[in-house]
Amino acid sequence: MGIKVIILTVALLSLSNCFFPTKTPIDLNHLPALTNMTFPEAMNYLNYPVETHYITTQDGYILTFFRIQAKNTTIKSGLPVVYFQHGLEDSSDTICLNDEENAPGLLIANEGYDLWLGNSRGNRYSLNHTKYTTSDKQFWQFTFQHMGEYDVPAAFEYISKATNQKINYIGHSQGTIQMFVALSRHEKKVLNNLKSYIALGPVAWVGQIKSVLLRSMGESKPLIDAIIATGIQQFLPYKQEEVLPLLCTYVPQLCGLTLEALMDMNDSYDNLKRMNIFVGHLPAGTSTLNMRHWAQNIRSKEYRYFDYGTAGNYLHYGQAKAPKIEVEKINVPVHLFVGQTDELADVSDVEILRQNLIGSPNVTYNLYPFGHASFLIGKNVTFMNDVFAVLNDYNQKETKIQF
Ligand SMILES: *[C@@H]1O[C@H](CO)[C@@H](O)[C@H](O)[C@H]1NC(C)=O
Ligand SMILES: *[C@@H]1O[C@H](CO)[C@@H](O)[C@H](O)[C@H]1NC(C)=O
Ligand SMILES: *[C@@H]1O[C@H](CO)[C@@H](O)[C@H](O)[C@H]1NC(C)=O
Ligand SMILES: *[C@@H]1O[C@H](CO)[C@@H](O)[C@H](O)[C@H]1NC(C)=O
Ligand SMILES: *[C@@H]1O[C@H](CO)[C@@H](O)[C@H](O)[C@H]1NC(C)=O
Ligand SMILES: *[C@@H]1O[C@H](CO)[C@@H](O)[C@H](O)[C@H]1NC(C)=O
Q: Where are the transmembrane segments (predicted)?
């Protein structure tokens, strides 16, 4: 634990540029090309057809979504649709940056799917709003519950209209916590357009979380208070001029430990050689309020809406206490993909989720010998066969691309 905390501190300080106050000159030429590319640049580089779409939510956030299809093809209509939603402090990028034969996004595209990749409000690609700029405090007043209430429904409506198809949703981490919010609320735009729901590293209850960063925020009130006291609304925003990619090129193990503060990483099943590319895209940014929401639920060991305090709760919810997120109301099939050593989606927390999914007509559960990040950066992506098996069940008339 001690070494992890030190590394976490160094990582946070370096990310916030306090540790290296003068911008360390980094020779970007020593980095792999993909390290500092935006998503469309990376797809062009790898020769996957890519489109950019802007989706405006009911509360004014303008989200940037990307759409890709099989390598060496052009975007066409009629393919079965997958919408893949990333996790906390993450973006569309990491879904497609593992080795080409192991990156889940690229595998899905090459399997003949029309793949849409979301970017949550407040990450590096989704910093626009119809009324506010990122310097306005109002812009940052959101947590994952607003992603479930607004982002997911807006995306379902947009993608189903654009493709004239129902949607297979794959969430990773926070991409699942927001989907559980949307489904428990019976958001019509989601339910009307949903084909299947696959949850990778699923999170709802987070009382047993082991991620050092989140655990510390959950348990140490002084830490979260100190962050709030700074008045910083944006938490770990994306920075181009990072030291981490270089560190990862030369000492992948150490670099792995750094990201381990946020997620878990383990050389025996994660592709640490690819870390220098990954950290060029991480962290991707979110709101401090969102981190507080995670911290609240870690502390309370409950899955609740954001606690604004008694007065604020009356204002937002008409009651003194923040309401429970009613997982038992979820009435669609849920396919859980769980990592045995996942430090964010701890198996015992997933078990609470599973036991509360009493309204779902079909809950399936697959357990794999790896961690939270392995779904994106794993060395062994055999689990993707099981993902395709579920997708095939829902897409009998699957359109395969013949190379
Ligand atoms: C990435 O780094 C290369 C090499 O320094 C540079 O030419 C390119 O402009 C950078 N790309 C971005 C998006 O910053
Ligand atoms: C894509 O095109 C490149 C260059 O022509 C070729 O080497 C590669 O095998 C192709 N890959 C696929 C999956 O079609
Ligand atoms: C988002 O904001 C930036 C900076 O103000 C602007 O350049 C860009 O065109 C905006 N994009 C969209 C989709 O509104
Ligand atoms: C990494 O995984 C291996 C094999 O599961 C395990 O023996 C080892 O303790 C793990 N290392 C860490 C740092 O968790
Ligand atoms: C990959 O993982 C699967 C189970 O998820 C296991 O059966 C298989 O042996 C693993 N392959 C390698 C090369 O480790
Ligand atoms: C539940 O879903 C799995 C995966 O798609 C499928 O194989 C199974 O037949 C389903 N079971 C029921 C009872 O629908």
A: none
